[in-house]
């Protein structure tokens, strides 16, 4: 294997800690790996360390075997205490007893496993309730617990705040607007189906719309405390959620202006932008969708 390229200090998340829920598979796995690659200690939180593709090395093992740092935490996002325990693990690993980054990514698919979902008249109440519990209550739990921890921490500069070069015309940040820094950054995983309706996904779309407005509200409430909260809304990615391929009829209705579908790393890059490079971005809803919602 080729040696990993070194990371500049301005791109590094060394010394920062993160919790990523749903880190065993799909987008969460990619986000966790990217955070660890940049030097963060990553708590990979999921129901099980085994990926949906059981042939894959568990995320935390891959991180550690490549020289990164992190651990697995058994978390069910519907159980607040399990999320609090994962955050405690991150805080214990932090050189400054902090949780810097919380990514509430875990989610469950919007299509019923055992019956076709042709619209809300075919959605089973127990199915819808589970979607709300995992996708919305899970994000509420993760955000609630992260904010409670972050409020106990002092603001710390992000790498982007250090990257000030007055010779190139950057204003001298400290001198101009006082001290910079953030108590922490929360990224919640929405979906473009929280921004616009998703075909035959009433419960899923409602849960993701809830995630968006929960996050906006948290952003307003805690901006004064320098806690950032943003939503990333992936569009139609090449990887499917859950274990079932998307119904071909529904897949045909999922169009992306960009010539190809998104990859997990496209979503991971958006998360890195928010938690590392964008200290003043809060309350934003970032579509990562190849232009689908612009159409
Ligand atoms: N893949 C896409 O195209 C896409 C598009 C838009 C939004 N999203 C969102 O991105 C997020 C991740 O999706 P994905 O495609 O990686 O899905 P995935 O099914 O590949 O992975 C989801 C992960 O979450 C975990 N998880 C599920 N329920 C959990 C629970 N109760 N507690 C803890 N962990 C739990 C699963 O074990 C799994 O590892 C979800 O919130 C999803 O709604 C995905």
TrEMBL record:
Kindly give the SUPFAM superfamilies that the UniProt entry links to this protein: NAD(P)-binding Rossmann-fold domains
Query: Does the UniProt entry include the keyword Protein transport?
Result: no
Q: Which UniProt keywords apply?
A: NADP
Transferase found in the keyword field:
no
- List all membrane-crossing ranges: none
Q: Which PROSITE patterns match?
A: ADH_SHORT (PS00061), GARS (PS00184)
UniProt cross-references to InterPro entries, sorted A to Z: NAD(P)-bd_dom_sf (IPR036291), PRibGlycinamide_synth_CS (IPR020559), Sc_DH/Rdtase_CS (IPR020904), SDR_fam (IPR002347)
Q: Which domain of life is it from?
A: Eukaryota
In terms of CDD domains, this protein maps to: SDR_c (cd05233)
Query: What family is this?
Result: Belongs to the short-chain dehydrogenases/reductases (SDR) family.
Q: What is this protein called?
A: Ketoreductase (KR) domain-containing protein
The scientific name of the source species is Vanrija albida
Q: What is the lineage of its organism?
A: Eukaryota, Fungi, Dikarya, Basidiomycota, Agaricomycotina
């Amino acid at each position: 294997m080729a040696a990993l390229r070194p990371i500049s200090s301005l791109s590094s998340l060394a010394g920062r800690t993160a919790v990523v829920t749903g880190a065993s598979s799909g987008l969460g796995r990619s986000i966790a790996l990217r955070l660890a690659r940049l030097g963060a200690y990553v708590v990979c939180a999921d129901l099980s360390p085994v990926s949906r593709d059981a042939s894959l090395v568990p995320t935390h093992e891959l991180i550690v075997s490549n020289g990164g740092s992190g651990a697995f935490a058994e978390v069910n996002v519907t159980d607040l205490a399990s999320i609090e325990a994962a955050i405690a693990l991150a805080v214990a690993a932090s050189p400054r007893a902090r949780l810097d980054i919380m990514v509430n990514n875990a989610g469950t698919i919007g299509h019923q496993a055992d019956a076709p979902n042709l619209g809300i008249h075919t959605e089973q109440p127990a199915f819808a309730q589970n979607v709300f519990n995992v996708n919305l209550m899970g994000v509420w739990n993760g955000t609630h617990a992260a904010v409670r921890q972050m409020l106990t921490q002092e603001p710390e500069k992000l790498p982007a705040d250090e990257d000030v070069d007055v010779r190139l015309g950057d204003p001298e940040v400290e001198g101009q607007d006082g001290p910079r820094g953030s108590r922490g950054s929360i990224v919640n995983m929405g979906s473009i189906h929280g921004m616009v309706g998703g075909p035959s996904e009433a419960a899923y779309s409602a849960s993701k719309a809830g995630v968006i407005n929960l996050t906006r509200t948290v952003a307003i409430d805690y901006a004064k405390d320098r806690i950032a909260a943003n939503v990333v809304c992936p569009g139609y990615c090449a990887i499917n959620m859950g274990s079932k391929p998307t119904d071909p009829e529904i897949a045909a209705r999922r169009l992306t202006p960009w010539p190809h579908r998104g990859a997990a790393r496209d979503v991971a890059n958006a998360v890195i932008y928010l938690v590392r490079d964008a200290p003043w971005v809060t309350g934003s809803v970032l579509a990562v969708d190849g232009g689908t919602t612009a159409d």
